[in-house]
């Protein structure tokens, strides 16, 4: 680029996206005189999915604003809770977020995921086709133009990932209503309809069952139920706090 020079200040949450040697509090960029401010911000490594309000000399502007020489730009972090157009709120997770996907499904949140990596182009295209928020730790994926909506997952720890996503989007939760294996909806199943698929100990001990309407997997409140119930209760607390 060889044009107007501008000064940018980034919110602390965005500093991790900036390349080494760039100051988040005060960095200068030379533009080409035609590129939008959104393009300039992304060229510095910050995905627009993580950007909130943009201000030029203290006044809000749109990402389409074309910077002029000497402008001072403030780049805010995305507002929380974040409003996403359209309903219901649905998600798509990349191949590295399998544990997060299962925990979201446990809460009844529509979370599409496959353990086989379809590639960045296919993920972005599915996000657009199904109007799903793409969750990823791949910064480059969030720069793809065909992406409908996306969010960077800031932690590599599943507990923190779930807390982050729940606090950011505050999705409606309906625990125990979705298959953790395939994301399909669950329906109540009488014991007599699934008994042939159960081990003898399970037949004798449990009487309440659910079945996935898509993959036919059978669920019951087994030995891990207390641990999963504690996870659900923590998540409900996070959602309640985010709504208050």
TrEMBL record:
Which residue ranges does the record assign to the Ubiquitin Mut7-C domain?
4-79
Q: Name the Pfam families on file.
A: Mut7-C, Ub-Mut7C
Q: Where would I find the Mut7-C RNAse domain in this sequence?
A: 90-231
Enumerate the InterPro entries for this protein.
Answer: Mut7-C_RNAse_dom, Ub_Mut7C
Could you tell me what this protein is called?
A: Mut7-C RNAse domain-containing protein
